[in-house]
Design brief:
This protein is of the alpha+beta class and about 200 residues long. Helices cover about 45% and strands about 20% of the residues. β4 and β5 form a beta hairpin. The chain is globular, with a radius of gyration of 17 Å. α6 crosses α7. Strands 1-2-5-4-3 form a 5-stranded mixed β-sheet, sandwiched between helices. It has 2 domains: about 120 residues, Beta Polymerase, domain 2 (2-Layer Sandwich), CATH 3.30.460.10; about 60 residues.
């Protein structure tokens, strides 16, 4: 893996564009009518490399029609190409899933994943990781995580969740693809996790 000198700039540019898209679609404003929206995931962690945006929304009263109202408002933007709803209330996630596919002016397709859940949601929350991960982050850890994300994107036989990558680098001491493969072989991955540094 080469030390890509512009990977930090690429990540910041992706984060900045993601925030512009969230604003253009009015997602925080729309969701605020029904609950408390929280930006989570790679964009919130300042570790974005892929065109993905993640939101969690905590609602006093969780109603499907509220999420459909948010999708309807967002769909008025000409960049919105597709919306999706899935009811995961009776599965392990115990929440409602909403997705928007947004076609950017440069033809990049952004995937916006949104989970709405009750205020008293008891399963792991992405919002609880944002602050601790930011506090634990150093320039070297940030670069390592971004380089391993880039490696994952170009290595077909490797697949892992970003939270597993964060665990591996921040607390597992992983610094390169070889040690990442070793870490993956010896740790449970791909499950809901309340890990925090």
């Amino acid at each position: 893996m080469s030390a890509t000198t512009d990977i930090l700039e690429r990540s910041r540019a992706m984060r900045d564009r993601a925030l512009e898209i969230v604003d253009a679609l009015g997602l925080m404003r729309s969701w605020s009518r029904f609950g408390r929206p929280v930006l989570v995931g790679a964009v919130a962690h300042d570790l974005a490399l892929d065109p993905d945006i993640d939101l969690e929304v905590y609602c006093e009263t969780l109603r499907q029609q509220d999420g459909f109202a948010v999708l309807a408002t967002a769909a008025e933007h000409p960049g919105v190409r597709e919306t999706l709803f899935q009811n995961h209330m009776y599965g392990p996630d115990k929440a409602l899933y909403w997705q928007i596919r947004f076609q950017d002016a440069d033809d990049t397709t952004w995937k916006i994943d949104m989970w709405s859940a009750p205020d008293d949601y008891a399963l792991p929350r992405g919002e609880h990781l944002v602050g601790p991960l930011r506090q634990a982050m150093t320039p070297q850890l940030r670069r390592t995580i971004l380089e391993l994300k880039a490696w994952r994107a170009t290595t077909p036989d490797v697949d892992f969740l970003s939270i597993d990558l964060y665990r591996a680098v921040v607390t597992g001491g992983v610094r390169d693809p070889e040690s990442m493969r070793e870490w993956l072989a010896h740790n449970e991955t791909g499950v809901l996790s309340d890990w925090r540094p």
